[in-house]
Amino acid sequence: MYRTHTCGELRIENVGLKVTLAGWIQKSRKLGGMTFIDLRDRYGITQLVVDASAEQELQDCASSLGREFVIQVTGEVLERQSKNPKMPTGDIELKIETLKVLNKSVTPPFTIEENSDGGEDIRAKYRYLDLRRPPLQRALALRHRLAQEIRSYLDKEGFMEIETPYLIKSTPEGARDFVVPSRMNPGSFYALPQSPQTFKQLLMVAGYDRYFQIVRCFRDEDLRADRQPEFTQIDCEMSFVEQEDVLNTFEGMMRQMFRNALGVEIANPIPRMSWYDAMDFYGSDKPDIRFGMKIHEVTDLVKGHGFQVFDSCEYIGAIAATGCAEYTRKELDALTEWVKRPQVGAKGLVYIKCNADGSFKSSVDKFYSAEALKTIAEAAGASAGDLVLILCGQKRKTQTMLGVLRLEMGNRLGFRDPKVFAPLWVVDFPLFEWDDETSRFYAMHHPFTAPKPEHIEWYYSDKKEDLERVCANAYDFVLNGTELGGGSIRIHEAAMQERMFEILGISKEDAEYKFGFIINAFKFGAPPHGGLAFGFDRVCALFGGQETIRDYIAFPKNNQGRDVMIDSPSAIDDVQMEELYLSSTWTPQE
Fold first, then answer.
1. Contact partners, residue 99, CB within 8 Å, separation at least 6
2. Per-residue model confidence (pLDDT) at position 224
3. Fewer CB near the last or first residue (10 Å), C or N of the chain?
4. What is the DSSP letter of 280?
């Protein structure tokens, strides 16, 4: 064996033991006649020492070692004279008796330390070196622990882990599909699954009443910090359940993950909020409830005072930023410019300062008396020392802008502590979204989501206003302002599914072509069923206190969807193109 112990294992009780270690050289330093080497593996670091009394050959070998050399050493565990309380192995060191270089290393392009000197691009190119760094090792270790907790819990709850295909039929109703040409079927293409949605429903039809899978999914869409073209879902489905059964089951799973992986107890039960309340009070369908600062509608209070901007608006909303009344004019001007950015989209910002002495100062003083400003501030939930921030416009759009502003102020005020966890179920989403440009309805989730039982009459109505009132029997799991997962009770009756396609403007022929297999399956006794899927990469990142998911994926893509380490995607040669019956006239642009 190359080692008897790992580099993070030895403690004071191991003093006097003769051991063999193997790993990478973190650093080497010479002090007088002694050479000290920090040896690293994924378990930790152990200090090695070659003293002045060692044979010259051993001293020469130790002196020739460089960073990231792979070595094997044998020696005796000693108690360190100068202990390092910051290291788990800081009470001991290993006196080297034999040293063998297993592999040399060229000088790495960046330091492999807790905080590296390498930029994001260079670390992505040498991802296998970046993965040696402790932050990424901790991230992937957390990912592993969470996966084990998931499997343990779901197995205990009677779920079976069943794999579903990666090469499937393209049904472009959500994001763009990644497509794969078929050599054996010229001119035909597979698609990579955006989720196993139809397959897990077919498993319910097949009688496997509790299914799960930690599964890779693929979406060809623009990337950001919490999105990758290939990602991992905790995908689950259950038969003979209602919404309450699903929520209770997966509250239990999340509670076990928090408890066993982080030692954290979360709210029991997890609070629930309707989509309409989430939008009205937080301006988001994934509200961060770690802090207050709710949105308050003040439309009736501010209209009719001669301020034309407000008088002509559909909706006016306000938030009260805690303790911000001392903002200077320069800071308020900067905040006004901030809300005008395209990411927010506001045309301007009105403020009311609630001064500590009880007076009020506003950017629209000439239109409002002190008493009117006080009434507006109180309606916004403000107290002395707070700053009321007001936006106006179309209702949902303005609420969304206020939601973005609320999160920004929460960040500035330190209210969004990543070590505080505030989970939430968002329920009662609209089933449909109307698009004015195409004059048609779209499914807010997907076309297999069932309507709420109490809204069935509206679901079968031909009136647009009735269909807009239908709520989905759906739910999202939200944590700290991030949607971690979502699901629904599914349609299990063929007639109800056909009605869904009709509302979405999908013809019978198109529905048969795209979804005929599941429509036909429902004719053979499909049970009532529902489920949900969690974004596993996002779960890992939030559990680790991070916003970006890349550190929790071993080999992620960059913002352009490229793997710069292996230089992918890349062109294929003419022989492969011919085998796949493909041709291309596209040439890269200069």
1. 50, 58, 61, 62, 71, 72, 73
2. 73
3. C
4. H
